[in-house]
């Protein structure tokens, strides 16, 4: 039975690595799920995505962009599970938004 790799969590399970993207800025990116503790007692964990930007040669990471907080939940596992339901198309859209925001911040 084929496993579904159309979501972020499914892709990690099937391929045992993060998906790779080419951003609109021409750079290659991968994606990482990040969580952090917050002061919110009802949802003490927040989750977001970090997109490491790789050198054109693929030899190393030369920067990154990241999303705003996407999920708040009671546990790290819940945050990870909810972020894992994002489709790979959703991830591409979030990457493009992060690239645009980063460019706008540099222009200010």
General description of the model:
The protein has 108 residues and is an alpha+beta fold. The chain has one domain. Helix content is 34%, strand content 29%. The strands form two sheets. Strands 3, 4, 5 and 6 form a four-stranded antiparallel sheet that branches. Strands 1-2 form a two-stranded antiparallel sheet. Strand 1 and strand 2 form a beta hairpin. The model has no long low-confidence stretch (mean pLDDT 95).
Average pLDDT level: 95
Helix content: 25-40%
**N-to-C order of helices and strands:** HEEEEEEHH
What shape does the CA trace take?
A: globular
- Number-wise, the strands total 6
Main β sheet profile = 4 strands, antiparallel
Number of helices: 3
**From the structure provided, what is the oligomeric state, counting identical versus distinct chains?**
single chain
Radius of gyration (CA) equals 15 Å
* Number of discrete domains: 1
- Specify the structural class: alpha+beta
What portion of residues belong to β-strands? 25-35%
Instruction: Report the span from N to C terminus.
Output: 51 Å
Uncertain runs: none
